[in-house]
Amino acid sequence: MSGSALDRGTLRIGFQRNTPPFSYSPTAEFHPIGYSVDLAQLVLANVFRSVEMIPPVQAVEVTSSTREGLLVGGVIDMECGSTTITEERLLRNAFSRPIFRNSHRIAHRSGTNSPAPGGLRVVGIQGSTSEAALRSQSDIGFEYTFIGVPSIGAARNAFSNDQHVDAMVADEVILRSLLRGSAAAEDIRLMDVRLGEECYGFMMRHGDGALVHSVDAALDDVFASPDYLLLRKKWFHDELPGLGFGLEIDPADEMFVS
């Protein structure tokens, strides 16, 4: 594929369905909202000089397992969600400057007894940075068996509904939001240990340098604007639209990398 996505009539952006507060769809029909969705809108308004000048944007549903393939295959031009910037991914794709700093946590049901000999049965996304962070933690303090699934939604469903799953590992903020919305939230606890610390970024193709450069320059401007402070409060402190709860995270928290 030649040329930049900036020069085509429609921008195709990948968003996830089940990763609040970054990208989620509270309705069955896919209409994503969230921090990363609004941030992408501010970035595009900056790139194209105004909201009115933004070309048509097609929101394409992606998952943790499909997003890279859809990007490399040209189905989407950019992925905006909660994708961690890693050395391995940088070999395959380009990233914007960091948009958020995060760690990984493990949620478990209170009173969970660790079965022998495999320990806690921990579900998470297969091949994810959460899995890598869990496996790299040599002094975690308990034995475990990792159960890999293809998406965060599948991990949440397994943890909520499968009696053979004791715990779930995921990015901390996404985990907090998923558990706050669970009917069984009162019986769920986060382990004290934090696994790793990494940054999210918008993911693009290596060959589209014009898009990467424009997005980075726009992020610099957006992060310095009053609109960005309001964005933090909306998605990390106030009640999340369609979900009925808020995360009540201080908008001045150090997880915001700007």
From TrEMBL:
Domain Solute-binding protein family 3/N-terminal as annotated: residue spans: 10-239
Keywords in alphabetical order: Signal, Transport
SUPFAM superfamilies hit by this protein: Periplasmic binding protein-like II
Top-level taxonomic group: Bacteria
One Pfam family recorded for the sequence: SBP_bac_3
Coiled coil: none
SMART domains to which the protein is assigned, alphabetical: PBPb
Protein family per UniProt: Belongs to the bacterial solute-binding protein 3 family.
Matching PANTHER family: AMINO ACID ABC TRANSPORTER PERMEASE, GLUTAMATE_ASPARTATE IMPORT SOLUTE-BINDING PROTEIN
Stated name of the protein: Glutamate/aspartate transport system substrate-binding protein
